[in-house]
Amino acid sequence: MGAVGRIGRIEGIEAEDGREAGAGEVGRGRGRGKGGAKGAGRGGRLPGVSAQRWAGLRARAGRLRVERDLETAAAAGARFVAPGDTEWPAQLDDLGDARPVGLWVRGRPSLRMWALRSVAVVGARACTDYGAHMAADLGAGLAERGWVVVSGGAYGVDGGAHRGALGAGGATVAVLACGVDRPYPRGHAQLIGRIAEQGLVVGELPPGDHPTPSRFILRNRVIAALTRGTVVVEAAHRSGALVTARCAQDLGRYTMGVPGPATSGLSAGVHELLRGDAVLVSDAAEVVELVGDMGLVAPRRCGPVVPRDLLEPGAAEVLAALPARGSAAVRDIALSAGTSADDAVVRLYELRSLGFVERQGDGWQLTRQTIPPVFPDGGGR
């Protein structure tokens, strides 16, 4: 893309301020004159733009200082990436008219290459210790499996996911709702600086711009479109993380949720997603099974294997026929196990050699170490 076209796109972003989901009105008018609202203003307002909206855009366009913003970005180690550039992630085109006119990118790696194998991990800012732990565990697990962790750089779940990926020596991307040279929140200045060194910091807004509530909502569509799937760790009913998840669903991306206590308001939004089309996940392996290549299957979950699980069916039935307390005669054991007395004796001596039972006079009883695994409550069957 030429310098004039690039400046026109930047003017489009700065004039619009990313206030509407269709953040391309001015950028699409860059062919009129020099670019953006400046050039379009000489030929009349763009189709579908109200007079009041157009007046506001032209007023903002009159204050643009694109060359200065490019210099500021370069000083911060950032660059501007637009559709058509080699580094542009093609999956963002799925947003249609809501596609960003361009993105400011801070960091050395290629945004397009990193976005090919990326997963978003989002959730509540004021998360619980459980939510922070799960976010960090997911971030580390995904990074160890070669996936890029994408989040919003905020407190809570976002920060936990970023730290987990960084701690595992992996890749992570922070998508901000402000300029990439202005870390927000301020308490995460060191974290975002580290992400810029080891990963990428991305944003729609030009250097120096501050975040607003509407910008956070619009930022979420970029996170959803950039990644293969979105995992929500903790989110209340009105959480912005749910906006990301629903946008991902609308785009045909995978949507996943980590369940929490049924009594927790911070998990209520996640549970609502799980009642719909979202998939329950509990670790990184289950996430990769969903978003990864065919054949990447999460390990089968099962309880611990105890020694009696390895017994042959006949021996297991005889063992189960012994009372939890006291001894029993061979005839009674055989009757309870549904076998003959001779077969019961054979099985009892097998069990004795394995340490499960012992002879007590004319009867048989369980050994002390056998009682807890067979009858955990210490009571009868």
Q: What is the distance, rounded to the nearest whole angstrom, between the alpha carbons of the first and last residues?
A: 77 Å
The oligomeric state is: single chain
CATH topology of the largest domain: Rossmann fold
Let me know the number of strands: 12
- Beta-strand percentage range: 5-15%
Considering the chains and any ligands shown, give keywords for the structure.
disordered C terminus, single chain, three-stranded antiparallel beta sheet, Arc Repressor Mutant, subunit A, Rossmann fold, alpha/beta, 41% helix, 16 helices, 12 strands
What order do the helices and strands come in, and which of them pair?
Elements: H1 3-16, H2 36-41, H3 51-61, H4 66-75, E1 78-81, E2 103-106, H5 111-115, E3 118-122, H6 129-144, E4 148-151, H7 157-167, E5 172-176, H8 189-198, E6 200-203, H9 213-226, E7 229-232, H10 240-250, E8 254-257, H11 268-275, E9 279-280, H12 284-291, H13 313-321, E10 328-329, H14 330-337, H15 341-353, E11 357-360, E12 363-366, H16 371-374
Parallel strand pairs: 3-4, 3-7, 4-5, 5-6, 7-8, 8-9
Antiparallel strand pairs: 1-2, 2-6, 10-12, 11-12
Helix pairs in contact: 1-3, 6-7, 6-12, 9-10, 13-14, 13-15, 14-15
Protein name: DNA processing protein DprA
Organism: Streptomyces silvensis
Family: Belongs to the DprA/Smf family.
What does this entry show, briefly?
This protein is α/β, with parallel strands linked by helices and 381 residues long. Helices cover 41% and strands 12% of the residues.
